[in-house]
């Protein structure tokens, strides 16, 4: 699916730490760097960017902290490179000694320097990726067969014929749902600074070498890097849910609102060539954007009904402003004279209706657009959209009214011969309204099933209800208000966490009736199956749920559609990553078969996070590994934290990502892909059975060991992560971690990542593969079974980001040699088996660009890990902190290092 030159955001990044600061003059230092970088080819343009940005950072460090600060950063940098390159205990101990030698104030500054470095290298990497995408855009035919919607559609036509392929394209749907899980460790101010640097880097590329514009761009970059250095890297307080809503809105304002129509256009261009833009497009508006930000109240007491109302209002305001600007922009260019392009009777009627309602505005628009009827009508539509935003009398009551008006203009232009205007700019407007409506994001509510049960019990008792139950009822009133103001798509999906019985779903409808009686909102109740047991019980629960009158009525109104959500986080924490992956596949297979036999149009909603322990990894390969009929042209998943900005924060990358995922979604249901996936699953079912049983046993031997939970909290910075002002949602359910159930899946994954162990993504796989034992058959399975191949490839990446020497230091913080050795033994066993199956003598040798990216990052992440370990030891052992600063200072150093490691590894939780 993905060329090695086009890495998945956050997973396979082409990164070079080369010359993070000005090139050292010491000959031994040069030899160290040269030996480390030997044989690791980096694109010249990216090498130049990193050198330039690194030199600018070095200058800032000298100006801000003097030559001594710069020298200390260089000492640690060279020591960690040498330790990584030589793989000797002496070299590693020298690097650790340097980290320990710093004063607490200096350690703080060095951690900040490495964190700034990673931000700059990430920027250079993204910039290089955009370069590659733009170069490809000018060289048609370079993509792989399944890499774009256009090529996937061409392949589909050969398998199912023109008519069926067209039907499937029309039904295509890609539905990412943005969530506010706290894995984006950097502040919004830091993100904004990096975005400004990106714009300056683009200006630098366009400037003449040695000219005044190049000099100006460098001067401004130096100023921006100084801002980045001087901006406090840690938030002073946790963001509110409304803050999180506004942060996500930045992605829409800067990228998605204008980019998505360009995705549609590019696909239409590829499918129809010169005809595109002069006749009606064949590409539907297949993207829908969902959001849990401001709607997900499961375990987050700060998300209230008033927050949900405000979140919807903020999103609506953003999209209406965007539509208003787009209508004005295209309207101003539509200077088509009535003589050559006469308006239709319907367009004339539109204008007359507007003029009667708004005579003064109509007079102004008429004066600005004499003899240009289509121009003044589009400007009139912009005025009505503005009225909608303000709530004025002349507002649209629903987006379908605006769509009707736009199609009226489009038909008039086409009938008058101005087809390129009709199916050019006006078509882009239509696509934007079809995609975003007046709501921008389809806001979804999520709540725990036990909260519903408790609320119903109170309501049934006849006694006074609690504030929590009143809040539960108020949520339904908020949904009803949002639907009334912005349409049914604006809100209506209600996700029930920990669905364990069909009654958990019926409870939602019962509560809606308690809140509003016959005026209850239209609801699509979505079960979320999270634990291993719940995944196994899912088909039976669904079969009962669809017999309920509320489900039957809603499904009848939507063409027998049903949505089911699968939780990756808790299932992995429940039984381990291997058994969870196998259980998720089996659950999808059974649910899809049940839906097909029942004539139900199923959409599976994947609760994937950014890290492997939460279902992360390239979405494309995951889609093509799904069971038959579980995709059927519809793919919905959660996107959170750093993944949102990595995949959607830059227009060219967002276009590429959407095109790739949509291509995989279209192709997953092709007869050949479904046949291959199904036959492989049956052929290797015995292997799956052995892997499931043995991996669970191994996982339980660790997590069910007496004292595991407090040990885990000791050997990782889990407790301290809870102090980071990352997101509004609490990191755990109770006051302390006495068992694994007390901990949310996100900090579970994040903490193992920070400890450079990544246990949540791989533990148990080595034992599972060893239990199968037949290496030749496992190599065959890796080659032919998409599910196993995806699992192994993801684990290879996860293990490549681990570091056994660093991991041993963290594990030594706990007084449990037995548990520490269990982790290390499984790490070694898993690495050995993954290398056997993928080939070569090291991890990722079958993916050389990804391998190089990880190898080049590792020693720099090591530097931050050594600083984090120093702080963690001091916090765990007060005696070790003597003379090294107070707990607050150590805690600050630790939290700074958390932010830096997150930036360096690029996938956290």
From TrEMBL:
Record-stated family: Belongs to the PEPCase type 1 family.
Organism field: Microbacterium hydrocarbonoxydans
Name assigned to this protein: Phosphoenolpyruvate carboxylase
Function per UniProt: Forms oxaloacetate, a four-carbon dicarboxylic acid source for the tricarboxylic acid cycle.
Keywords recorded for this protein, A-Z: Carbon dioxide fixation, Lyase, Magnesium, Pyruvate
Quaternary assembly: Homotetramer.
Root EC class: lyase
EC number assigned by the record: 4.1.1.31
Name of the gene: ppc
InterPro entries reported in the protein's UniProt record: PEP_COase, PEP_COase_bac/pln-type, PEP_COase_Lys_AS, Pyrv/PenolPyrv_kinase-like_dom
HAMAP family: PEPcase_type1 (MF_00595)
């Amino acid at each position: 699916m993905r060329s090695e030159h086009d890495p998945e955001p956050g997973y396979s990044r082409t990164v070079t730490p080369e010359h993070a600061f000005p090139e050292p003059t010491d000959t031994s230092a040069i030899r160290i760097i040269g030996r480390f970088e030997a044989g690791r080819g980096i694109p010249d343009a990216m090498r130049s960017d990193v050198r330039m940005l690194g030199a600018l950072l070095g200058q800032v460090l000298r100006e801000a902290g003097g030559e001594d600060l710069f020298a200390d950063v260089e000492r640690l940098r060279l020591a960690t490179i040498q330790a990584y390159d030589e793989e000797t205990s002496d070299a590693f101990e020298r690097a650790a000694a340097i980290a320990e030698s710093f004063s607490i104030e200096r350690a703080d500054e060095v951690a900040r320097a490495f964190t700034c470095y990673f931000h700059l290298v990430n920027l250079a990497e993204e910039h290089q990726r955009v370069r590659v995408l733009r170069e490809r855009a000018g060289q048609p035919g370079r993509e792989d067969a399944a890499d774009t919607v256009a090529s996937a559609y061409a392949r589909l036509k050969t398998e199912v014929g023109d008519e069926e392929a067209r039907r499937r394209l029309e039904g295509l749907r890609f539905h990412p749902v943005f969530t506010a899980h706290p894995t984006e460790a950097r502040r919004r101010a830091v993100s904004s600074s990096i975005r400004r640097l990106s714009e300056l880097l683009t200006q630098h590329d366009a400037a003449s070498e040695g000219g005044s514009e190049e000099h100006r761009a460098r001067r401004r970059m130096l100023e921006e890097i100084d801002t980045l250095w001087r901006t406090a890297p840690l938030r002073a307080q946790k963001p509110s849910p409304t803050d999180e809503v506004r942060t996500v809105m930045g992605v829409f304002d800067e990228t998605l609102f204008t980019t998505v129509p360009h995705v549609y256009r590019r696909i239409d261009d590829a499918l129809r060539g010169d005809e595109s833009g002069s006749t009606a497009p064949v590409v539907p508006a297949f993207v829908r954007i969902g959001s849990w930000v401001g709607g997900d109240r499961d375990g987050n007491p700060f998300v209230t009904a008033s927050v949900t109302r405000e979140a919807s209002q903020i999103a609506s305001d953003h999209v209406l402003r965007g539509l208003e600007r787009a209508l004005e922009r295209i309207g101003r260019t539509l200077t088509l004279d009535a003589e050559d392009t006469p308006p239709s009777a319907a367009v004339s009627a539109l204008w007359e209706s507007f003029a009667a309602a708004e005579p003064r505005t109509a007079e102004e628009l008429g004066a600005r657009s004499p003899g240009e009827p289509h121009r003044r009508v589009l400007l009139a539509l912009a005025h009505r959209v503005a009225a909608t935003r303000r709530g004025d009398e002349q507002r649209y009551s629903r987006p379908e009214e605006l769509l009707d008006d736009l199609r009226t203009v489009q038909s008039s232009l086409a009938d008058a011969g101005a087809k390129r205007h009709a199916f050019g700019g006006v078509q882009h407007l239509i696509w934007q309204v079809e995609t975003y409506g007046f709501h921008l994001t389809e806001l979804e509510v999520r709540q725990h099933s036990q909260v519903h049960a408790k609320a119903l019990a109170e309501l049934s008792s006849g006694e006074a209800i609690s504030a929590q139950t009143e809040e539960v009822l108020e949520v339904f009133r908020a949904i009803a208000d949002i639907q009334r103001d912005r349409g049914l798509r604006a809100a209506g999906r209600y996700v029930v966490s920990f669905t364990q019985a069909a009654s958990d779903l019926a409870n939602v409808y019962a509560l809606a009736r308690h809140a509003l009686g016959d005026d209850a909102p239209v609801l699509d109740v979505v079960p979320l199956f999270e634990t291993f047991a719940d995944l196994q019980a899912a088909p039976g629960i669904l079969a009962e749920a669809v017999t309920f009158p509320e489900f039957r009525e809603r499904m009848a109104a939507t063409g027998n559609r049903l949505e089911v959500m699968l939780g990756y986080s808790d299932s992995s924490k429940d039984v381990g990553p291997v058994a969870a992956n196998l259980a998720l596949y089996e659950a999808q297979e059974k649910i899809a078969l049940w839906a097909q036999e029942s004539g139900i149009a199923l959409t599976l909603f994947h609760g994937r996070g950014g890290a492997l322990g939460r279902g992360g990894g390239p979405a494309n390969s995951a889609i093509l590994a799904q069971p038959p009929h579980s995709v059927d042209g519809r793919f919905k998943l959660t996107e959170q934290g750093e993944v949102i900005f990595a995949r959607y924060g830059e227009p060219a990358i967002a276009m590429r990502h959407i095109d790739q995922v949509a291509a995989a979604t279209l192709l997953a249901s092709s007869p050949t892909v479904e046949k291959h996936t199904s036959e492989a699953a049956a052929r290797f079912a015995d292997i799956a059975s052995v892997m499931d049983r043995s991996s669970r046993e191994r996982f339980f031997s660790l997590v069910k060991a007496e004292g595991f939970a407090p040990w885990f909290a000791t050997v990782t910075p889990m407790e301290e992560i809870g102090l980071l002002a990352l997101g509004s949602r609490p990191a755990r359910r109770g006051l302390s971690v006495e068992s694994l159930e007390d901990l949310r899946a996100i900090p579970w994954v994040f903490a193992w990542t920070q400890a450079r162990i990544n246990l949540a993504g791989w533990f148990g796989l080595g034992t599972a593969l060893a239990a199968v034992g037949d290496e030749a058959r496992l190599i065959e399975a890796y080659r032919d079974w998409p599910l196993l191949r995806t699992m192994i490839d993801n684990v290879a990446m996860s293990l490549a980001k681990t570091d056994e020497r660093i991991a041993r230091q963290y594990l030594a913080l706990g007084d449990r040699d037995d548990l520490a050795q269990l982790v290390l033994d499984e790490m070694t066993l898993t690495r050995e088996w993954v290398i056997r199956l993928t080939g070569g003598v090291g991890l990722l040798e079958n993916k050389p660009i990804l391998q190089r990216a990880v190898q080049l990052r590792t020693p720099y992440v090591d530097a931050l890990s050594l600083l984090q370990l120093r702080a963690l030891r001091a916090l765990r052992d007060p005696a070790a902190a003597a003379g090294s600063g107070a707990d607050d200072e150590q805690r600050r150093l630790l939290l700074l290092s958390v932010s830096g490691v997150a930036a360096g590894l690029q996938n956290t939780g």
